[in-house]
Structure formats: C-alpha cells, structure tokens
Amino acid sequence: MPAAARIASPAHDSTAAPRDTALVLVNLGTPDAPTAPAVRRYLSEFLHDRRVVTLTRWLWWPLLHLVILPLRAAKVARKYASIWLPDAADGAHDGGSPLAVHTQRLAQAVQRELPQLRVVAAMRYGQPALAQTLQVLRAQGVARVLALPLYPQYSTSTTASVGDVLAGATGLQTRMVEDYHAQADWIEAVAASIRSHRAEHGAGAHLLFSFHGLPQRFVDAGDPYARQCEASARAIAQRLGLADDAWTLSYQSRFGRERWLEPATRDTLAALAQRGVREVDVVAPGFAVDCLETLEEVAMMLAEDFAARGGRLRYIPCLNDRPAHAHALAAIAQRALDEWQG
Ligand SMILES: C=CC1=C(C)c2cc3[nH]c(cc4nc(cc5[nH]c(cc1n2)c(C)c5CCC(=O)O)C(CCC(=O)O)=C4C)c(C)c3C=C
Ligand SMILES: [Fe+2]
Ligand SMILES: [Fe+2]
Prior knowledge:
Elements: H1 3-11, E1 21-27, H2 36-47, H3 57-83, H4 98-113, E2 118-123, H5 130-139, E3 144-149, H6 159-167, E4 173-176, H7 184-201, E5 206-212, H8 216-220, H9 225-239, E6 247-252, H10 265-274, E7 279-283, H11 292-308, E8 312-316, H12 323-341
Parallel strand pairs: 1-2, 1-3, 3-4, 5-6, 5-7, 7-8
Helix pairs in contact: 2-3, 4-12, 7-9, 7-12
This protein binds the ligand C=CC1=C(C)c2cc3[nH]c(cc4nc(cc5[nH]c(cc1n2)c(C)c5CCC(=O)O)C(CCC(=O)O)=C4C)c(C)c3C=C and fe (ii) ion (2 copies).
EC number: 4.98.1.1
Organism: Lysobacter cavernae
Function: Catalyzes the ferrous insertion into protoporphyrin IX.
C-alpha cells in the first residue's frame, strides 16, 4: 500500500463522527522492503538522528556513509528477509515488515477501544512518517494530538526523539505520554501473556527479560531507561509470583563498539547454560510489537545458540494487537487526555 494511503485511510473514514482530537501511536519505524537500498534509506535516516548517535558530525558522517551503511545494509536486509510477513492469500491484509504490520493492527485495535477519537499509527523513521502524519491530521481539521510512543520505558534515544518531531509541528496542540513502564494494565497484560505461554508449554523454565540495550553513556547522563526496565521486570515478576532466582534481566541488540548496558542477553544465556539451566523462556517487554530484534535476534539466532549449548529457548511473543494490549494503551491514552482537559 502506498505510504500516503496508509496515512490517510484511518482519518478518511466517512462513517465516523467529526473528531478533532487524534491519538497517534508512534513506533520506531522499519524499512519498506527487505532489500539493501530500502534498508540503507531507513538506517540512514535513523542513524542521522542526533538523539541516537551523538558523535560529532565530522567523525560520524564519513564512518556512516563509507563504512556502516555500505556494509550493514546488505547484511541487515537478509535478516529482514528472514522475518518478512507475506500478504494474506485471500487479500484480507497486507504483509510487510512485522513492526509495521503489527503496529498498524495495534492501532486498529486501539481505535475499536476509543471510537470517539481518531487513532492512527506513525513511525519516527520511514513510513508513514510522523511529521507528515501530523500535517495530514491538521489538514483534516484535527486540533489536538496526543502522541503515545510505543516505548514502555523512556529513553532520550527513542521517546525524546518523538518529542522533537512534535515540537516542530505547527498549528496543532500536542502532548506526549512519556512512558508507561509501571502502568498496572500494561504490567498485567504482559504477565498474562507469560502465564498463558507457560500454561501451554510448562511453568518450570527460567524467565529471561530481554530489553533493547542502550549505550551506558546515556544512563550516566541521566537517562531513566535502565531504571525503568528494572522496575518493569520486577513488577511483572512479582505479578507472576516468581522467586528472585527464577528470572533475570538482560539487554540485547548492542550496536557499535562503546560500552552498552549490561549484562548482554547473549552472555546471560551462556551463563545460564553454564549453570545447567536447560529451559529458558525469553520475553521482551521493551518492545510493544514484534520486530527484527525479537523475531530474528532472539527467536532465531539466540535460540539457535542456546540449542547448541544443549538447552531450549522459547520466545514469548510481544503483546502485538492482543486485546489486553489495546485495552491497556487505550486506558493510558484516556488518562492522559483527561489530565490534559483538566
Ligand atoms: C525499544 C527501545 C529501543 C531503544 C532504547 C533503542 C536504542 C538504540 N537502537 C540503536 C540502533 C539500532 N536499532 C535498530 C532496530 C530497532 N531498535 C528498536 C528499539 C530501540 N532502539 C526497534 C524496535 C528496532 C527494530 C526495527 C525493525 O525494523 O524491526 C537498528 C536497525 C537494525 C540493525 O541495523 O541492526 C539499529 C541500527 C541505537 C544506536 C540505540 C541507542 C542509542
Ligand atoms: Fe549524511
Ligand atoms: Fe534500536
């Protein structure tokens, strides 16, 4: 589907009552195709964001354009190809990058929870671009936009970058939900997804909470991300009634050479195998929907590594468009709107 149609269609619904407030679910973004040129375009936009890479330009730009993009695009395109979703045979839904497909479906599920609002999905990088989505909404008569970044834990590298785009939008009143790492409905939705997975596959496995990593430098500069990841994991473990030695927290998806948050998921799995742990369930509650980092890195690569050490890793999918997820996000949005209206 062309990007413009994807942006316009939810707000063009002529059966809906006039709605001057919109809820925009914002995710990171993903390439349009599992090809090297598409991945290169996406990575280039992402890695030019000064919130993500803070190196000075004269150091970073030659490295990015001459080394990282040429080498990484082809390699990462193959990874995307391994998880790309096909179009439905009956034409019922489009395929695409899992992050894009699940984010759109989640927005539709939240729309059903909040019929009085317009609910749309947008991406910080790639399509449908957040900046353009805001312009389209404004042109359609929307006056107020609540942005809900699909990052349960706040980081300047992700959430604040969404805030930058909102700050640049003209002619709209905007607000943003900063985080929902401890929100009760969301904690319960994650806990319930783990419970139902364990009801099906057995409850004995060690539970590993794997969050996306971040350079340690960000945390040293005051980023609350790691603290919020710890608080989310502890709250979910408590909700499940897990003993302290039945779960572990780790950070995945390291990028580049500097020090990132520790322990790394890969090292933690190696240490668990070493300790004789044979069954591990991995859940990734920092990701609202499944994406490259969960489906390829965890469910494929890390699962293979763990199997090679004689163990079995079972990946618990993200909440995606589960009703409990849509319900929790709707409650978070509703509370933010109530506060806004005073
Ligand atoms: C969930 C929170 C995320 C944080 C925090 C985050 C920080 C961060 N990421 C990079 C570099 C890359 N991340 C990539 C993919 C990616 N990252 C997140 C989420 C967070 N990133 C998601 C949901 C995804 C998946 C996108 C998809 O299409 O499925 C990538 C691209 C893939 C690759 O080349 O390996 C990069 C690069 C940095 C540098 C960073 C903090 C500074
Ligand atoms: Fe550049
Ligand atoms: Fe990332």
